[in-house]
Amino acid sequence: QALLGAASKDLITLFDVLEHLVEPLDVLRRLRQAVMPSGAVAITAPDFGGWWSRLTGRRWPFVTPWEHLTFFTRRSLAGLLERAGYGDVQFLHARTPCSWHTLAQRLRLPTSLARRVSGRGLALPFGTLFAVARP
After folding, report:
1. Is the N end or the C end of the chain the one with fewer CB atoms within 10 Å?
2. β-pairing verdict for 88-92 and 128-134
3. Residue 5: predicted pLDDT
4. Is the per-residue pLDDT at 114 higher than 70?
5. Separation between Cα atoms, residue 103 and residue 68, nearest integer Å
6. DSSP codes joined into one string, the chain
7. Distance between first and last Cα of the chain
């Protein structure tokens, strides 16, 4: 509560957090009150509406229902931010960190291949929403 005092923060980040929250709207409203009028809230979340998620369906690496309580699209995230009272929402480009092991498992490649690539990763140029919202 002390962290979320009067509007005194220039920037608040929620990188891969919002999709894990039980009440994301309430949290965004509280954060809007804590950020300065000239400040911003920056958010990243998996892009459930992107082509990667649509193409892979249930095998999309970010379909983890016990961890991800909300799945966001660009439209649903923008709507949530509007309902929370943010006036200016911009979407920027973000890369998505992903391990080769996760991809191998989700694509049901041989277990031996998944083991060989364990611990290695890449940053995909798609799959993540990156929103910057101002009060």
Report:
1. N
2. antiparallel
3. 64
4. no
5. 18
6. --TT-SS-EEEEEEET-GGG-S-HHHHHHHHHHHEEEEEEEEEEEEBTTSHHHHHHGGGSTT--TTT-S--B-HHHHHHHHHHTT--EEEEE---EEEEHHHHHHHTT--HHHHHHTTT-EEEESSSEEEEEEE-
7. 19
CA of 94: how far to CAs of 3, 12, 36, 44, in Å?
Answer: 27, 17, 25, 8
User: What is the pLDDT confidence band of residue 4, given thresholds at 50, 70 and 90?
Assistant: low
| Single pTM value for the model | 0.81
Q: Residue-wise over 122-133: b if at least 16 C-beta within 10 A, else e?
A: eeeeebbbbbbb
The number of angstroms, rounded, from the C-alpha of 102 to the middle of its chain's C-alpha atoms is 18
Which of helix, strand or coil describes residue 95? coil
Do the beta carbons of residue 35 and residue 41 sit within 8 Å? yes
